[in-house]
Amino acid sequence: MTEPSSDIAAVKPPARLFDRILRCIQMGQLVPGQHLSERDQMLRFGVSRNALRDELKLLAAQGIVTLTPHRGAFIAALDRQSALDLLEVLKPLCELTVERAALNCRSDKDRAAMLATARHMVETIASTSRADFLEARRQFYALMVQIGGNAELGRFIPSSRADLFRIQFNTLQTREQLDVHAGDYARIADAVVNNDPVEAVMAMRKHFERTIDALMILPAHHAASTISVVTNGDVQPC
After folding, report:
1. With contact defined as beta carbons under 8 Å apart, do 209 and 91 qualify?
2. CATH number listed for the domain at residues 80-216
């Protein structure tokens, strides 16, 4: 296979290409189910074919892309069972996160930061900018991990796989459902700042229950069947 000309390959160093691809997904420039043409992505990121393939392997190991023999790479699209499996793993971790945050949120600074971060996420949940919501969501969970004091939780929450689920799921929810989720986040934050671990865990549990209930009324292969990719042939940098 012929390598692209030098004006395409290795224009930019491949450092942190993994994060740049994730950013494209968060911004909606790459969407679940989309085929990743090697040439298009080499143009987008200014890297060689080998560098791109190395990063795609890392993304595949994280469940962000799927590599199919003779077809190439695709942004992963979660069917209902895959989403349920993910939620089953995340639920106890998130409950532990809020419990620890509620037990350890003692300073006025932490309380103010918790409320401000939750308020920002609520404001962005129905935003047309996926990247804004996902970043606000990451800050929300990262702050709870920080307040809780267990650094190991930060290795799992928030996760890129969870981001992928939220990108798919939020596009399928009604405004009313999004408002309900916003209320869940506000209740979680209130319980944390009031040092009520029981209420914090209950609020997080209820949030997951609502998410699962909403997921169960969708077709089993909702992601692949409802998210379409429309392009005009241009390759935009992320």
Report:
1. no
2. 1.20.120.530
